[in-house]
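Submission sheet (multi-component)
Chains listed below:
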Amino acid sequence: MTDQEKILNEVTGSDYKFGFQTDIDTETIPKGLNEEVVRIISAKKEEPEWLTESRLKAFRHWQTMKMPEWAHLKIPEIQYQDIIYYAAPKQGAKYENMDEVDPELLDTFNRLGIPLEEQKQLAGVAVDAVMDSVSVKTTFQDTLADKGIIFCSFSEAVKNHPDLIKKYMGSVVPYTDNYFAALNSAVFSDGSFCYIPKGVRCPMELSTYFRINAANTGQFERTLIVAEDDSYVSYLEGCTAPMRDENQLHAAIVEIVAMENAEVKYSTVQNWYPGDKNGIGGIFNFVTKRGICKGDNSKISWTQVETGSAVTWKYPSCILRGENSVGEFYSVAVTNNYQQADTGTKMIHIGKNTRSTIISKGISAGKSQNSYRGLVKVLKGAKNARNYSQCDSLLLGDKCGAHTFPYLEVDNPSAVVEHEATTSKIGEDQIFYCNQRGIDTENAISLIVNGYAKEVLNKLPMEFAVEAQKLLAITLEGSVG
Amino acid sequence: MLEIKDLKVSIEDKEILKGINLSVKAGEVHAIMGPNGSGKSTLASALAGRDYFNITNGKILYEGKDLTELSPEDRAREGIFLGFQYPVEIPGVSMVNFLRTAINSMRKYREQDPLPAGEFLKLMREKKKIVEIDSDLTNRSVNEGFSGGEKKKNEIFQMALLEPKLAILDETDSGLDIDALRIVSNGVNKLRSPENATIIITHYQRLLDYIVPDVVHVLYKGRIVKSGDKSLARELEEHGYDWIKQEVDAND
Ligand SMILES: Nc1ncnc2c1ncn2[C@@H]1O[C@H](COP(=O)(O)OP(=O)(O)OP(=O)(O)O)[C@@H](O)[C@H]1O
Ligand SMILES: [Mg+2]
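Outcome: structure written.
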């Protein structure tokens, strides 16, 4: 056995740094899912009648559906009646003043690197912090309001901006879309809402930090971003959860609407608890993310760094309706130990001269399975549509798998669609070359992996690119082949 | 500095080095020559700690310590540098990032603080001059798309930057044009000092006109079968290996 194999066998992925649990009084409702539970959630959030009804409609629809099985994933049957669908840190209403925030909560977010005190934050990043089913604090709201930007929790938006929510919620991802979208539409808890008015460039990064804390709960958040004509916003999402032996369910929806000349950048650093080295525990992550480039010349970019979760099922997509609109998808998905990821994108070209770019970098280690699944669809009217897809897989060791499932549907002869795919292994020669220059194997892998993923990491806002690099290194610690 | 005693090395049960004895003192330059497949690169790799070679017998002492107990990275940090016969490409990793990581790993080993970015870049500029390396090359990924000669120059550049005590250059002269050969040789000569030593593996006596060795060894079938001064290299150039092969094979 070579040294490298030894490391591979001995070390079993590093410790998950965010696995602690906060001891805080949590209000939960009884586990299980039925119409009553849907009504309770809606009532807890003091929602208007129409929203309660919309939830119920989604719930009834969900009951008629089956969990999709086409993904390259092995998932034990999820016991929906054993999940708690609402959990909230006690103290009810959101904190207006920092002094009112439970110190335990503050401490939790501090340990996660997300201080909630504005003066301690990274300059230029506004944060909405969501713990379990509720948003606990949104920072910099006043600064943003001066520009007419709305950045608040979804629940607040339902109360304060019902017209916008009514108009846009479900307009990109209807509850009928898929099994998990229906489930989310029935029981969604909290999330963020951003509205960028016409002609406004959002002066800071907006971000939501999702934290699962309570045991046996699921998290079902919803995010909605609306960018009016000529506006710009860059939005970031981060996620972590405690280490637990049982699997926890996370099923989210993100909807983006970009009007004429608007640009939305959406970045994710997903680091939900991945389970232990033997594949016990971890988050089941089923997410529907979709944006529509409604106006001409609009642009939506998805950038994701996926390192966490036991199972990831996620395809951030763009509907390119406006003429000359642009969709981008940049992804790094890392799987180690027994993690499974089936992730990719859909680019739906409807308008003329629409362009899309897909760069996907899969990194598999341990006994994990990592799949890229992507659809490029060019409709009849999409004259001169262009797509470029590049899907690379990097393997560490020989017990993991990498798969690519590209789908192409082209109905316009003027379209040009390019697809490139490569699979490579981190070579022992590369590692030895680094070793010979004094770089140990862990650092060599981190260097090589970050080099491999550079194209995608470069798309992240600066502060997060650094974090993401570290995260890649940590996720792959001890996985050499 | 380096004492190799009756070293036997095999790979997958095939014995490649069959009892090497070699002693290199500080300040010396040794040249190792020998026909293809005789085990020259194997010896270099074994010194650098490549793990698929098994040392089945003998000792390697480096500065009085047992080298085989050190990991490859610790050997490098202790001052052993291998100029690879086939330098490896690492796509996506810039030379700058690679070398900064290397230097700082070594500094950390010596309990020194990391080199500030400004000083590091200054150092790079200085050393680039020694090997007259194109500054464009150092902005690219490690060896990616480098020409054969550029790769070799890059090895010497790295050596200049890392300032090893014992440099092992495995056919660094192969594939170099005449000017590059001169540049590389000058680079090696500039780095020569009474404190460090160099082992040069080469097929060509020409290189030894530039870098004059103290001792020349001939490696054949896993053994050093002849050692002499620089005139041995000239003899080999003239007569080839046949006469040595005959001598050795006759004794077998
Ligand atoms: N990784 C390996 N697997 C199997 N055999 C190997 C390996 N490396 C070296 N060998 C064998 O060991 C012997 C010595 O090889 P080595 O590369 O040391 O020769 P060399 O003297 O450097 O030759 P050259 O002058 O061609 O570079 C050869 O027969 C070679 O095929
Ligand atoms: Mg060789």
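Remark: Chain B has one domain: 2-251.
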